[in-house]
């Protein structure tokens, strides 16, 4: 059984939150989230730029109102 790297869980949670609220996102943002999910599944950590963009998308997806 392989264990996930320490950073994996945080990204997986952010991506899952975005997926659950995909109706709040643009088509491009949904595609970006899907792409990052595939990247994570392959064991590749997002770049700093991808991470920053994911944070922005997550903030939009989880915003109240």
Low-confidence stretches: none
Q: Compute the average pLDDT.
A: 94
Q: What is the CA–CA distance across the termini?
A: 42 Å
Percent helix among the residues?
A: 55-70%
Q: Summarize the main sheet.
A: none
Radius of gyration: 12 Å
Query: What general form does the structure show?
Result: globular
Coarse structural class: mainly alpha
Alpha plus pi helix count: 3
> Total strand count, please?
0
Write the layout of secondary structure elements.
Layout: H1 8-20, H2 27-41, H3 48-62
Helix pairs in contact: 1-2, 1-3
Describe this structure in words.
This protein has 65 residues and is mainly alpha-helical. Helix content is 66%, strand content 0%. The chain contains 3 helices and no strands. The chain has helices at residues 8-20, 27-41, 48-62. The longest helix is centred in the middle third of the chain and has 15 residues, at 27-41. It is globular, with a radius of gyration of 12 Å. 11% of the residues are buried. The mean pLDDT is 94.
């Amino acid at each position: 059984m392989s264990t996930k790297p320490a950073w994996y869980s945080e990204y997986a949670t952010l991506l899952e939150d975005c997926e659950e609220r995909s109706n709040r996102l643009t088509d491009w943002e949904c595609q970006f989230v899907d792409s990052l999910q595939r990247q994570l599944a392959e064991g590749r950590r997002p770049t700093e730029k991808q991470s920053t963009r994911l944070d922005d998308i997550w903030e939009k997806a989880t915003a109240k109102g």
